[in-house]
Amino acid sequence: MIPHADADSRAFWDRLERHELCAQRCDDCGLLRFPAAPLCPWCRGEQADWEALSGRGVLRSWTVTHRVAHPGFADRVPYVSVLVELADQPGLLLYGLLDPRTEPAGQLPVRVEFVDEGDRTTVRWRKDVR
Amino acid sequence: MTDVRALRGAAAVAGIGWTPFRKASGVSPLALAVRAVRAALDDAGLDPAEVDGLGTHHLGDTAQVHEVAKALGLDGVGWFSEEYGGGNRFPALLGDAALAVASGVARHVVLYRALNGRSGVRMGGATRPMPGPDLQWQQPYGVLTPAHNYGFAARAHMQAYGTTSAQLGAVAVAQRCAAVLNERAMMRTPLTLDDYLEAPEIVDPFRLYDYCLETDAGCAVLVTTTERARDLRRRPVTIEGWAAQLGRDDLTKPDLTTSTAATIAPRLYALAGRGPDDVDVAELYDAFTFTVLVQVEDYGFCAKGEGGPFVESGATALGGRIPVNTHGGFLSEGYVHGINHVCEAVSQLRGDAGARQVPGAETALVSAQPGYLTGGTSAVLLGVG
Ligand SMILES: [Zn+2]
């Protein structure tokens, strides 16, 4: 289970468990939105469908954590957290971890992998060699 | 009131107060709050019974306004504001207090912020409470502390403009030089660029001295009309203009290298009738070195992308073109979530800043957290009454 998941985002996390990276597509204006929201920020329409994304994007930024006092991460340092802009629509951003074999770089093309640990599924990004 | 510019200089800061800045205060946030409030009232020479307004902002880590009113025996508080919110709030709250006294809703408003930010709820902690539903998108990926959020922005700036670690270090070094001259500051040992670069990396691109200091402290300011302030003990420091903005958060911002400060700067300067060239001293929110670098650009002291070379040139040091964080800032004086920047600006405009005084300072800019994480920010321009 992902802590702090809510009624708006439940479908995102459920689909991620099935290894589908999804976002909501607005029924009214046809644009994608992320993070999960009850309303389209572009046209304010309320109806949307969850749609599988390409799983491709580019690195917008990253951090390398050397020290952190958190029970889930203290023993995983150093780790690279990334901010990825998805290829599916400009401005769709999400965080993730970077595969340790990938060297981070600005605008690096990346593709998604799914990581199952216990009862949670999260995304990890690696260099897109396509 | 038909023209918002009528507010220009209508209200003033008439008193400021601090508790000592400590790692472990040994007292409650309520004790810190009432000590700071009493210090601000003593500074102004105002009887506590005259206080009819109280305000603060917090993250569930402080004394609430009703507790402070009860502790001080205040029965006449008719204006109060208690906002849930962090570093983007204090200048906006100062503006709200200015509106309250200018309109006559209140006569004497005291604003405070008091927290045990080191010994109590740690501000930089990886398990701190955060507002809103954002945590679910961050926490699974180790994006756990403010350093992570600001680190993404700093990295993006480095990628876009070639900003370097040494330029971030120049911010830390300049502010430490000021703190050496400030008897309140927690960090008064001189810091060199080598010290900065040799310090451990915590969340790269940040090293140890990029971080502000988690602090136990309280600060308070008294706001009243400029006219009434003239009858009090100290020279009034006028509130010339302020601006606030709800902006895009980190996951919806089009570009991390520009902060919400760039959005409010034109409105702030227009309301105050002053521009960046008129600012003699700037106290810029410095949760991390990077926020200073981006704000000298976004408040118009240099061009976009030139913040790195600008701070490296010494322009923001004492004696530079625009001295920034003349008390050492949150990096070296201590972190009271924004309010201690206002106290320092008031000291500078009164000419009371001793060895770190900026000669002839008549206009000061004080900014809030420039709009990372949630997107919101605020700022105020202060003048000499
Ligand atoms: Zn829509």
Kindly describe this structure.
- The complex is a heterodimer of chains A (130) and B (385).
- Chain A is mostly beta strands.
- Helices cover 6% and strands 41% of the residues of chain A.
- In chain A, the strands form two sheets. A five-stranded mixed beta barrel of chain A has the order 4-5-6-8-7. A three-stranded antiparallel beta sheet of chain A has the order 2-1-3, with helices on one face.
- In chain A, strand 7 and strand 8 form a beta hairpin.
- The longest helix of chain A is centred in the first third of the chain and has 8 residues, at 10-17.
- The radius of gyration of chain A is 15 Å and the shape is globular.
- The termini of chain A are far apart.
- The mean pLDDT of chain A is 94.
- Chain B is built from 13 helices and eleven strands.
- The longest helix of chain B is centred in the first third of the chain and has 16 residues, at 29-44.
- Chain B has helices at residues 29-44, 65-71, 90-103, 135-138, 146-161, 165-179, 193-198, 226-229, 261-272, 289-298, 307-312, 329-332, 339-350, and strands at 11-18, 53-58, 79-84, 109-116, 201-204, 206-207, 216-225, 237-245, 281-283, 363-367, 377-384.
- In chain B, the strands form two sheets. Chain B has a nine-stranded mixed beta sheet with strand order 3-2-4-7-1-8-11-10-9. In chain B, strands 5-6 form a two-stranded antiparallel sheet.
- By secondary structure, chain B is of the alpha/beta class.
- Chain B starts with 10 loop residues before the first strand and ends with a strand.
- Helix content of chain B is 33%, strand content 18%.
- The chains are: A mainly beta (130), B alpha/beta (385).
- At the A-B interface, strand 4, strand 5 and strand 6 of A face helix 4, helix 5 and strand 5 of B.
- Strand 4 (56-65) of chain A pairs antiparallel with strand 5 of chain B, so a sheet runs across the interface.
- Bound molecules: zinc ion.
- Zinc ion is lined by residues 26, 28-29, 31, 40, 42-43, 45 of chain A.
